[in-house]
Write a structure and sequence with these properties.
- This protein has no helices and 10 strands.
- By secondary structure, it is an all-beta fold.
- A 6-stranded mixed β-sheet has the order 2-10-9-4-5-6, with no helix packed on it. Strands 1-3-8-7 form a 4-stranded antiparallel β-sheet, with no helix packed on it.
């Protein structure tokens, strides 16, 4: 299984980024997908999950109302739209096929002025 994650970068506090994760998985459309992040010196943190159809989404309390997870099954891609970013959200963001050991390579998000 191969992943291509993109969209990370440097953004000012209060800014926005959109992460993408394309997965070469034949059964992509039957799997829930999840975003996690790991900040320097901290444990991995769950960010958001989306059902296989995209009809149901779940968010961590710290991102609720600011982040939006979505997917396009025709493109085998899951997205994470991040708004009102905070410096403490500087981390490497990873996508994961939920319930498996399939992980993206991670994309760095840095929130700094």
């Amino acid at each position: 299984v191969q992943f291509v994650e993109s969209g990370g970068g440097l953004v000012q506090p209060g800014g926005s980024l959109r992460l993408s994760c394309t997965v070469s998985l034949f059964t992509f459309s039957t799997n829930f997908m999840t975003w996690y992040r790991r900040a320097p010196g901290k444990e991995r943190e769950w960010v958001a999950t989306i059902s296989n159809t995209g009809g149901t989404t779940f968010y961590g309390d710290s991102v609720k109302g600011r982040f939006t997870i979505s997917r396009d099954n025709a493109k085998n891609t899951v997205y994470l739209q991040m708004n009102s970013l905070k410096p403490e959200e500087t981390a490497v963001y990873y996508c994961n096929v939920r319930g498996t050991n399939y992980w993206g390579q991670g994309t760095q998000v840095t929130v700094s002025s």
